[in-house]
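Tokens for chain A. Residues wanted.
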């Protein structure tokens, strides 16, 4: 949320508190703001409406996030891998693709890119690459990705055309069905932005690069 959303947020939380006969003190409202400030205001409003209809008690911040459709990163990774496997079957290595979950783009890029991933056998992908995908995807969900990391994934046609000067088709948008990430997960940083990542994330990416 933005600072400009604060008024709508407070009104929604005051209405929610009144529904459950809870005193909407300044401390309570600030606590909910801290728990939910990385969500879009639309998600908060959706969660508040759902809570009024479904809950018997005033929901905590984590419960409102769940009501907004948020899922934890480990569960996201499972769905993200399924989306990648489906896209490989539908589009193959020749088409450039752009996942609506841009953390998938960043994860695949750190595993060697779209073409390499498409060329793996099903057995190899499931036995080894999936483990790296899950670890890196989960870490990047927590740390965020840069705009460069989040760019679309280049397929064989685009790669070839880039060397010959021919114009390539726009990448195919792959819809995953996953809910949006928290606001600001794709950040604008310079070319050495990996220095700003937590050490465990940098180590994961380095390990994946060595095994690619």
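Reply:
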């Amino acid at each position: 949320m933005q600072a400009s959303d604060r008024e709508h947020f407070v009104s929604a939380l005051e209405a929610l508190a009144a529904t459950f006969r809870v005193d909407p003190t300044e401390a309570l409202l600030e606590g909910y703001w801290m728990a939910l400030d990385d969500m879009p205001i639309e998600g908060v409003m959706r969660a508040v409406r759902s809570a009024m209809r479904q809950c018997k008690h005033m929901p905590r911040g984590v419960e409102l996030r769940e009501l907004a459709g948020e899922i934890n990163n480990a569960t996201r990774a499972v769905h993200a891998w399924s989306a990648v496997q489906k896209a490989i079957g539908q589009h193959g290595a020749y088409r450039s693709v752009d996942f609506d979950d841009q953390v998938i783009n960043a994860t695949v890029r750190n595993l060697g890119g779209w073409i390499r991933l498409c060329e793996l056998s099903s057995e190899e992908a499931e036995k080894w690459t999936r483990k790296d995908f899950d670890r890196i995807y989960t870490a990047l969900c927590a740390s965020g990705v840069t705009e460069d990391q989040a760019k679309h994934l280049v397929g064989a046609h685009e790669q070839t055309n880039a060397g010959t000067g021919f114009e390539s088709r726009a990448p195919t948008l792959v819809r995953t069905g996953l809910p949006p990430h928290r606001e600001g997960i794709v950040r604008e940083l310079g070319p050495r932005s990996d220095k700003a990542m937590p050490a465990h994330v940098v180590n994961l990416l380095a390990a994946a690069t060595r095994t690619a």
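The two ends are 38 Å apart (CA to CA). The mean pLDDT is 87.
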